[in-house]
C-alpha cells in the first residue's frame, strides 16, 4: 500500500502542487479516522498536549516533504529511500524496546529492500527514470 501511495502521489504531483495534495490527504484522512478516534477518546493530561503537538508538527512536516519529494523526483528514485524506514524502525524496536526480529521478518525485509535497490540500480543503468 505504501508503494501504491507513492505512485499515486507522484502521478497527482504532475498535475497538482504539493500543498494541494497535502491538503486533500489531510482532509480525507481526518474524515476517515475521526469517527474511530471519537469512539476511543481519552483526554490528554498536562505535558501530553506538548508531546502530541510535537508529534503532529513532525508528522505533518514530514508528510508534506514526502509529497514534495514525489512532486520533484521520480518515485523509482525515492521509494528505495523510503524502505530505509524498515531499517530504522527495526533498530528502534531492537535497542529501545528489546524486541528481536524473527527470521521470516528479516528475510522479507531484505527481499523488499533488495528489490528496491535493484530497481534503483537498473534504472540508473538505463540512463534515467521511466514511468
Any key phrases for this structure?
131 residues; mainly alpha; 2 domains; 6 helices
Structure write-up:
The model has no long low-confidence stretch (mean pLDDT 86). It is built from 6 helices and no strands. It has helices at residues 2-13, 18-39, 48-72, 75-82, 84-97, 103-126. The longest helix is centred in the middle third of the chain and has 25 residues, at 48-72. The chain is mostly helical. It folds into 2 domains: 1-72, no CATH class; 74-131, no CATH class. The two termini are 18 Å apart.
Furnish the topology, listing elements before pairings:
Elements: H1 2-13, H2 18-39, H3 48-72, H4 75-82, H5 84-97, H6 103-126
Helix pairs in contact: 1-3, 2-3, 4-6
Give a short synopsis of this structure.
The protein has 131 residues and is an all-alpha fold. The protein contains 6 helices and no strands. The chain folds into 2 domains: 72 residues, no CATH class; 58 residues, no CATH class.
* Separate helix tally: 6
Number of domains: 2
First and last CA, distance: 18 Å
Low-confidence stretches: none
Amino acid at each position: 500500500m505504501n508503494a501504491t501511495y507513492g505512485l499515486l502521489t507522484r502521478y497527482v504531483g504532475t498535475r497538482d502542487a504539493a500543498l494541494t495534495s497535502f491538503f486533500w490527504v489531510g482532509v480525507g484522512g481526518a474524515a476517515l479516522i475521526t469517527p474511530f478516534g471519537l469512539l476511543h477518546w481519552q483526554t490528554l493530561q498536562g505535558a501530553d498536549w506538548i508531546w502530541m503537538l510535537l508529534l503532529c508538527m513532525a508528522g505533518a512536516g514530514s508528510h508534506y516533504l514526502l509529497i514534495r519529494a514525489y512532486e520533484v523526483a521520480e518515485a523509482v528514485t525515492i521509494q528505495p529511500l523510503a524502505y530505509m524506514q524498515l531499517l530504522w524502525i527495526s533498530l528502534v524496536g531492537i535497542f529501545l524496546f528489546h524486541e528481536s526480529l524473527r527470521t521470516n521478518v528479516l528475510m522479507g525485509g531484505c527481499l523488499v529492500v533488495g528489490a528496491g535497490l535493484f530497481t534503483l540500480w537498473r534504472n540508473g543503468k538505463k540512463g534515467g527514470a521511466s514511468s
